[in-house]
Design a protein that fits this description.
The protein contains 17 helices and 19 strands. It has 496 residues and is an alpha/beta fold.
Length: 496
């Protein structure tokens, strides 16, 4: 075989190999494309895409129940957490149901903040083929009631989506508001649906002890509330206790006297948790007993849990709130009206957006006031796992009176478990110092801790503290890095 013939044969072999590779690629690509088209076609056949944005799990629960009910009457449903929603998914859907909560200063939940920006930043986004409905969860006690739902509604209209019906705003999970959502869905599906349940896993706790933590303070009294429970109760640090508010015996007696009724144990028991402030109209000749049974229940209030199950006590930190009519419903009930030994009706609500990651990375805890509850719970949990790289930054009014959990914190310091502690007592000096100022002063340390893998957990008041802390973090770390920390669950908040 001559050299030239050999060269030709080698060239032919190379060409054949390249040809085979190209053919294989085209076949594989065709299969993938076909599979993708098949998946898209399947998705397009679904009647509804349900998207939820949640901070503490309530919007997710309602979204899942909505999906289950629609599926039960023959509707095809896809369910997705907004933080994982893609533009492609949204554009493919014909009908979308949004279940979203408002958090912080009228914002999207922390998990959905980046998603809303990424999805609705496309100038060429076209949703003109799409119909939608929004269930917005909120609390009228806050300034920007259901604002995120309103913002979402504006975005969808901007990109030409058509509303199936007017947005349903839910005030603190009121059943009447949820029933309105259900009524609209029944009209759409032409099917009778079951009532949306609110997972009332109520349990009976016993008020064991309460101690004022800031006697002499310029601020309202802050109480440590200790509740005993049976061995079956469990929770994680970061979780929330929902309290069914109750009436004091004096309030019930005054109400019965005004109605010219004799006080009895039976009537006291019936009226214990009934709203005596907004009474329904009594029908002519309606028996008193029937009338009071129609009263709405008092509101539910929620508090960060300050203990862990290993401590064998459920602990809260509650500041007394003053209103035009007296003490706040929840704070008044827990700090004054309920007597020691009395049963407290409550339930634990999981708060996954504020749970700890089980690792040995450093932890930065920032908070003020009653936010100390969530912070000390996390520190107790960290101590259980032997995690000693912890930094606490806490603010209150005066060191002399408002040094909450002083003994426990000092003990942790002595043990080497809490090596870094910084306080901001705002009323001790002419120039007020808050936790955000401490952060700014220790910017270099903050950067070093973040570079070492630290997570940041913030607990306490929304107005003033949480807002200013976020601004300071952006100033130190940059908006992009802070958003990345949020995505990686290294920036977690429980604010109110």
């Amino acid at each position: 075989m001559t050299y030239s013939v050999a060269v030709v044969l080698i060239a032919l072999v190379i060409l054949l190999v390249l040809y085979a590779v190209i053919i294989a690629y085209l076949i594989l690509n065709n299969r993938l494309s076909h599979g993708k088209q098949k998946r898209l076609a399947t998705f397009k056949q679904n009647d509804y895409l349900i998207v939820f944005a949640t901070q503490s799990g309530q919007a997710e629960n309602i979204a899942k129940q909505t999906a289950q009910q629609l599926q039960a009457v023959g509707q095809k449903v896809s369910l997705v957490d907004m933080q994982y929603l893609t533009v492609e998914q949204l554009c493919q859907a014909q009908k979308v149901l949004w279940c979203v909560s408002t958090y912080g200063e009228g914002d999207a939940p922390d998990t959905a903040q980046s998603a809303i920006k990424q999805i609705f930043c496309h100038a060429n986004l076209d949703l003109s083929h799409q119909s939608y409905a929004i269930l917005a969860l909120g609390d009228k006690r806050y300034t920007h009631f259901c604002r995120f739902g309103q913002v979402l509604d504006q975005y969808l209209q901007q990109y030409h989506a058509q509303a199936l019906f007017e947005m349903v705003c839910v005030d603190h999970l009121k059943q009447a508001d949820l029933d309105c959502w259900l009524k609209h869905l029944e009209q759409l599906s032409a099917q009778k649906l079951s009532r949306i349940a609110q997972q009332h896993d109520w349990t009976a706790l016993i008020l064991k002890n309460r101690t004022c933590l800031n006697s002499g303070s310029q601020g309202n009294p802050i109480y440590q509330i200790q509740l005993s429970y049976d061995d079956a109760l469990s929770w994680s640090s970061g979780d929330i206790l929902e309290i069914q508010c109750g009436n004091s015996l004096k309030e019930i007696q005054c109400f019965l006297a005004a109605q010219q009724q004799t006080v009895s144990e039976n009537l006291v028991a019936i009226l214990q948790f009934k709203d005596l402030r907004q009474l329904p109209e009594q029908r002519p000749n309606e028996p008193f007993q029937d009338w009071i049974l129609s009263f709405a229940d008092l509101a539910i209030r929620e508090y960060s849990i300050a203990s862990i199950p290993e401590q064998k006590i459920l602990e809260l930190v509650v500041r007394q709130e003053k209103t035009a009519t007296g003490l706040g419903l929840g704070s008044g009930w827990l700090t004054e009206h309920a007597v020691l030994g009395q049963m407290i009706t409550a339930k634990i609500r999981s708060n996954p957006a504020f749970h700890l990651k089980q690792n040995h990375k450093p932890l930065i805890l920032i908070g003020n006031g009653t936010g100390i509850a969530g912070l000390v719970a996390h520190l107790s949990q960290r101590q259980q796992h032997g995690n000693q790289q912890n930094w606490l930054i806490f603010g209150e009014r005066q060191q002399q009176f408002d040094h909450l959990y002083k003994q426990q914190i000092e003990l942790w310091q002595e043990q080497g478990f809490l090596p870094d502690v910084d306080y901001a007592f705002s009323r001790d000096k002419a120039e007020k110092v808050y936790v955000q100022h401490i952060l700014q002063q220790k910017a270099e340390q903050l950067v070093n801790w973040i570079e070492a893998g630290a997570a940041i957990y913030v607990c306490g008041s929304l107005k003033g503290m949480a807002q200013e802390v976020e601004k300071t973090l952006i100033n130190i770390l940059g908006a992009e890095q802070l958003e990345q920390l949020r995505k990686n669950k290294r920036y977690q908040r429980d604010i109110y």
